[in-house]
Amino acid sequence: ETGVTQTPRHLVMGMTNKKSLKCEQHLGHNAMYWYKQSAKKPLELMFVYSLEERVENNSVPSRFSPECPNSSHLFLHLHTLQPEDSALYLCASSQDLGKTGEKLFFGSGTQLSVL
Amino acid sequence: KQEVTQIPAALSVPEGENLVLNCSFTDSAIYNLQWFRQDPGKGLTSLLLIQSSQREQTSGRLNASLDKSSGRSTLYIAASQPGDSATYLCAVSPGSARQLTFGSGTQLTVLP
């Protein structure tokens, strides 16, 4: 167990559904991240939060909406997704943001399939 | 823009063999390089982190080297075991974790 927990592990949704991915970290970290991992592609950074404030949005479509109610929890709200959004969505945390040499701790991911 | 390439994309070896995984990056202005392991359908686990001022790091049967000037890193796995089967990713950063650029990984299969 890495200390970063993601639920659900698997999710199948239609293009008109609304769903949410949840991430919780038990490490006392101040920064949390959402990554997208598509098959055979490098990880893509989607959003970064530091102390509950969003500090980065890497041109992610508005059908993905992040929420960070406190430094331990991070959500990714999904609505009207497209089939090409099917991927493994990974949450990560680090002690602080902007510190050089910081290590990332990853959750196990949510495997999302959009039909 | 930084690009990270890992070759080969997949590798299959018999148990007990020593092996080398390769990672190359286009911009040598990095602060650190990390190697991660990813099991199927799971998240990433950090294996080794090399600062730009270092040449290598070792952890058990794993040894990672960094040649910043040539834009290359290798991950050496000694006496491979079936439990080493996973995808190995490298990532480089000019500074903080949020600036990491990942490669696509090498999928390793160690046959019993």
Helix/strand order of chain A: EEEEEEEEEEE
Please report which band the strand proportion of chain A falls in: under 5%, 5-15%, 15-25%, 25-35%, 35-45% or over 45%.
over 45%
Helix content of chain A: under 10%
Count of DSSP H/I helices of chain A: 0
Rounded average pLDDT of chain B: 94
- First-last Cα distance of chain A: 31 Å
Structural class call of chain A reads mainly beta
Strand percentage of chain B? over 45%
Sheet with the most strands of chain B?
Answer: 6 strands, mixed
Number of helical segments with 4 or more residues of chain B: 0
**Roughly what percent helix of chain B?**
under 10%
Description:
The complex is a heterodimer of chains A (115) and B (112). In chain A, 0% of the residues lie in helices and 56% in strands. Chain A has no helices and eleven strands. Chain A has strands at 4-7, 10-13, 18-25, 31-37, 44-50, 53-57, 64-70, 73-79, 87-94, 105-106, 110-114. In chain A, strand 4 and strand 5 (44-50) form a beta hairpin. Chain A is globular. The mean pLDDT of chain A is 92. Chain B is mostly beta strands. In chain B, strand 4 (32-38) and strand 5 (44-51) form a beta hairpin. The termini of chain B are far apart. The relative contact order of chain B is 0.34. The mean pLDDT of chain B is 94. The chains are: A mainly beta (115), B mainly beta (112). The interface between A and B is medium-sized, with 31 and 24 residues.
Structural features:
heterodimer, A: 115 residues, mainly beta, seven-stranded mixed β-sheet, four-stranded antiparallel β-sheet, 56% strand, globular, B: 112 residues, six-stranded mixed β-sheet, five-stranded antiparallel β-sheet, 11 strands, 0% helix
Can you give me a brief rundown of this structure?
Helices cover 0% and strands 56% of the residues of chain A.
Question: Can you lay out the helices and strands and say which pair or pack?
Answer:
The complex is a heterodimer of chains A (115) and B (112).
Chain A: E1 4-7, E2 10-13, E3 18-25, E4 31-37, E5 44-50, E6 53-57, E7 64-70, E8 73-79, E9 87-94, E10 105-106, E11 110-114
Parallel strand pairs in A: 2-11
Antiparallel strand pairs in A: 1-3, 3-8, 4-5, 4-9, 5-6, 7-8, 9-10, 9-11
Chain B: E1 4-7, E2 10-14, E3 19-25, E4 32-38, E5 44-51, E6 56-59, E7 62-67, E8 72-77, E9 86-93, E10 101-102, E11 106-111
Parallel strand pairs in B: 2-11
Antiparallel strand pairs in B: 1-3, 3-8, 4-5, 4-9, 6-7, 7-8, 9-10, 9-11
